[in-house]
Structures are given as C-alpha cells and as structure tokens.
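Hello forum,

I keep getting stuck at the same step: I have a sequence, I want structure tokens, and every attempt I make locally crashes halfway through. Rather than fight my setup again tonight, could one of you with a working pipeline run this one for me? It's a single chain of 235 residues.
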Amino acid sequence: KKLELEQCRCSQTKRNMKTNEQLQKDVQDAIKWQPLLKAAEVGVTAKDGVVSLTGIVSSFTKKLEAEKAAKGVLGVKAVVEDIHVKFANDLNKTDLDLANEVLSGMKWNWSVPNDSIQVKVEDGWVSLDGAVEWNYQRDAAKNCASDLIGVKGVINNIKVNSLSADLVEQEAIEKALSRSWMIDDHNIQVKVKGNKVVLRGAVESLFEKDEATRLAWNAPGVNEVDNELAVVYDF
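Reply #2:
Ran it on my machine without issues. Output:
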C-alpha cells in the first residue's frame, strides 16, 4: 500500500509539472477569466516560474487584478509587474480631487481609523502614512484609494502598532495555518520574536504564501510579519 501511495504521489507530481509555455498559457487564461480585464491589455512571459506582466490598462484596479490572477496560478514563483495605468482624457483628475475622494472614502469606511492616517497625492500617486492597530485596517485604507478612478498607484507606508497587551502566540498562528484548506502547512515553520512573526519553509504557490501572511497578521499583538517562505515548484 505504501508503494502504491508513493507511485500515486509521483504520478500526481508529474501531472502538475509545467513547461514555461504551459505556465505562460495558464497565466494568460487566468487573466482572460477575470471579467474586469481584456486579455489584449496584458502581455505575459514566463521563465522558470518567474512571470512578467506588461501592458497598459485603464485603471489601477485592473493592474491589481492582473497581478492577483497571476499569483493564483500554480507554478508561479514570482511576479514582475510592468503594467502602466493610462486614463482617457475625460477621466483625468487633479491631485486635490483625488486627495479629497480618498479622505471621503476613508471617512465612510468603518474599517479605517481615518483620524490616524495622512494622505498625500502627487501626479496621481497616493501615499498613505500613519499608524493603525490592525493590518486589516491598513489594507482597508489602501483599498479606499485603489478603487478610485484617476489613481495611478498607491504607496502604503502605514505602520501597524498593535495596542494588544497579549503576547503573540506562536501555537495559535500554527493552528490557524493548519485549519486553512488553502495552505499545506507541513513545510511551514512559525517563529515569534516579540511582536514580530517570521514564516520560513516552503509552499507550492504565491497564493499560499500570501494567505499565510494574511493569517499571521490576524493574530493579536502582531506589528510585523516577515514572510521568508520559498515558492518551490519544479519545471
């Protein structure tokens, strides 16, 4: 039975292995599958798991969606993104207009403590500074800017300063990783240093790596997550 199991695993591994051409096509198909995107907008090349995205899109949200689609493909180890955002002339806004829209969006978003975040806009690029207690608040602030028409990019400098008096529990993070059906946690090691969480080991996809980061940030008391997980996939 053990021999049969090993043969099954080897067969599955061979089926999962991809050539560069197959990986390129998989990423192209993943991008085509996104209703927001047009395949012709984004060019894709792949080499040994490193995927490069190029092209011109009409919104920053499209740029993020293309990157997200690529990261979700099995075999992608890294994404090099060189997509530019270009708006139609009638969609151009002044930096003052964008700053006011970002501030208004954060004001009406219950997830964002807008009184502790500073917004600066320069040539369509939004910079966010300040400090929040949870990482989800940091992400929510970024999303308030990312979804706006006229935004070319977002630089998120917001720091997470947890006010929790609880010590970060390594075991709790390990259990959270093991509960997730999206992550194979057998090769993940969790280390806690004060308020910092370090993830080491290996996963099979960038999606797993990002999901491990998200789950680690959910632990009370975390101020920083250092994700050193390697994406391992044979070509």
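Residues 2-16 form the longest helix (15 residues). If your local run keeps crashing, start a new thread with the error log.
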